[in-house]
What we know:
alpha+beta
Amino acid sequence: MMKRKEFMLGAVAGLTFAAAATAGGVIDWPSAEAGPVAGVSGRLAPSAGAAGLAFAPPQGAPLSFADIFQQVAPAVVQIDVTTRVERPRTLELPGFPGFSIPVPEGQAPEGEESEEEGATALGAGSGFFISGDGYIVTNNPVVENATEITVRLADERELEARVVGRDPATDLAVIKVEGSDFPFVSFEESAQPRVGDWVIAVGNPFGLGGTATAGIVSATSRQNIDPSTSQYVDFLQIDAAINRGNSGGPTFDIYGRVIGVNSAIYGNPLGGSVGIGFAIPATTARPVVEQLMRNGRVERGYVGLGLRTFSPDMWEAYGLPRDFNGAYVESVTPGGPADQAGARAGDLLVAVDGKDVENGTEATRLVGAARPGETIRIEVIRDGRRRTLNVRSGVRPSEEELNALQDGGGVSSAPGEAPAAGGTVVEGLTVVPLTPALRARYSLPDDLEGLMITDVARGTSAARLGIRPGFVVTQADRAEVRTAKELSDTVAAVKRSGRPSILLFIQTPQGTAPVALPFESGE
């Protein structure tokens, strides 16, 4: 189970919540039944090598991590935060699990604060000094809703801190305490960690204070670990134990250089490590931290393109090789930089400033790396021809603003709800043209065009892909569809071309999604 915000959180004060975590059990060691080995018998006495090296590690491994930890531990801090949380609007009924009653407006259960007064919660995370004058790096979720921040140093001193800047797009934040001559560590960018290299994670797991764990780099360039950071972060995967409360702490190499910022784990229900943790690489963290320290925010280039990364099946359904590199331009922001430069929905973005892009994520990062006001050369394929668009970069809106823009305009009907009877069956989908009555019934946008799906045949490819009644087919094989005949004719043409599937764009309650629909055999 993915545990993204790995900082400790427990409600206190007005809500009078008490939190405790316990873990225990019996370790069941697997039994071993040793049989005879050909040519070997009696007590085995492996060679200890040179005198005095009976416990020496293999070549390349450190004798101990103690010296490294001793050097870097003073720069690692515990971060305690107070946040304000919303009071529950329902009250659980004792003796009736799962049943609750609403709390009247302006009232609170006995012993709790009123809604106007609010309620508070305590959280704990980790961080580390990145400069001698008090700047501290941590994760954004540790401090994003904090009303009070206290930093506990390795020597047990406690100092108040303030937020300097946050960057939700990379999950990083910088806070500051007043003072000077703090012990600090540095990011390592020139020497890239390799799979198999030793790493040390230092932090504040479960609120216990400075703790070191060791392991290796298990993998690099892990993408899409966290949807909110997938556009800008390729994570390091490590097997050094990372638990709740480690969020924001540093990952060191064996030379004491910061190669990552602990961010996420795959964990058990108690938030414990299962040996798979993720860190934001130093190459990503350093420029972000420097901008936050300098400006309090991160400015990224922006052109106003909604990009979609296709799977090999989707590229094949689109009529291109399965290993095609590029991104589908799903939308163009009206009046935005790309719109003014002539970009169109349906373009295939294949290069940014002369660099070929593998997918939408890489294209977004290249555009984001540009300074606002710079001219970005974007290469697209349209109608089989390669074109170059010169786009003057704007400033990327905040993640909150972008999410707000993406939340609107979806189909409001419930998936699985049959919108209407009748229609034409095409590849297991029963479709009808959109009518004013359907638009009114399901609160569809006036500018949405396509075919309403009224039924999905059981056992078909469409059903297995999760297509539901109430969805709207807007495009088929790059072309807009308004009638069932247009959809049927397009399907027939794609079948004649020898392709095994057709690419459909379907409007769902969550937004528009591309679907590679395999053809049903025998049709």
